[in-house]
């Protein structure tokens, strides 16, 4: 089967290393995964005042999540937590109450930082959020990427063989996880 993966890049920076990482991941992912970025940069800051009538950006976000069989988060760590822009997008997707778009969507988290901690603290915050949103998460392998610019080409392809193999394994395991979730609850996705 083929699965549609909607992915979030948690950074708005034009030279984002996490955007590069997303490109590297897509290049090494199994052919059975199709990727569509879910944009977050034009979303207003969420408030429940919008619940009665979501603006087009909010609707587009919810539709994109609904159309995805699985969600991939590729995000930096900002101040030991989830970047505000990404958290805002998640808040949009989770509402109105009772219409949480993330429920039962299989998900995976990965991130790159310039420091050695590799977004570990952000990922642990994300795991709490995804648990609350009832989104099953790939638990292993974990992927904390210490980003070295020399390991990536201009289109984001990873040129370091061992990092490249690590990223490929992560995506293979994600695909297997999506298949397992799908097999156990076929009505919910696909
Ligand atoms: C950072 N950075 C950072 N790195 C980290 O490992 N842990 C952290 O808590 C933070 N905090 C933080 C806060 C803010 C506001 C910024 C701008 C940066 C550094 C971060 O890893 C680096 O800027 C990356 O380049 C961010 O990824 P993107 O945005 O390039 O994808």
From TrEMBL:
NADPH-dependent FMN reductase-like domain location: 4-146
Domain of life: Bacteria
TM spans (from-to): none
Pfam family, one: FMN_red
UniProt organism field: Georgenia soli
An example Gene Ontology molecular-function term: FMN binding
One GO cellular component term: cytosol
UniProt-recorded name of the protein: Chromate reductase
């Amino acid at each position: 089967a083929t699965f549609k993966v909607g992915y979030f890049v948690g950074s708005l920076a034009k030279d984002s290393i996490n955007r590069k990482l997303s490109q590297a991941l897509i290049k090494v992912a199994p052919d059975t995964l199709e990727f569509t970025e879910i944009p977050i940069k034009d979303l207003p800051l969420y408030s429940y005042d919008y619940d009665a009538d979501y603006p087009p950006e909010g609707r587009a976000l919810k539709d994109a999540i609904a159309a995805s069989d699985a969600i991939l988060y590729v995000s930096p760590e900002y101040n030991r937590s989830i970047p505000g822009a990404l958290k805002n997008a998640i808040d949009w997707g989770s509402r109105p109450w009772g219409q949480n778009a993330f429920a039962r969507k299989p998900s995976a988290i990965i991130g790159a930082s310039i420091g050695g901690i590799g977004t570990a603290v952000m990922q642990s915050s994300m795991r709490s959020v995804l648990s609350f949103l009832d989104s099953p998460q790939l638990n292993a392998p974990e992927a904390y990427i210490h980003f070295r610019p020399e390991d990536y080409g201009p289109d984001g392809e990873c040129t370091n063989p061992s990092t490249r193999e690590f990223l490929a394994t992560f995506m293979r395991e994600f695909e297997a996880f999506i298949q397992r979730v799908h097999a156990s609850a076929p009505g919910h996705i696909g």
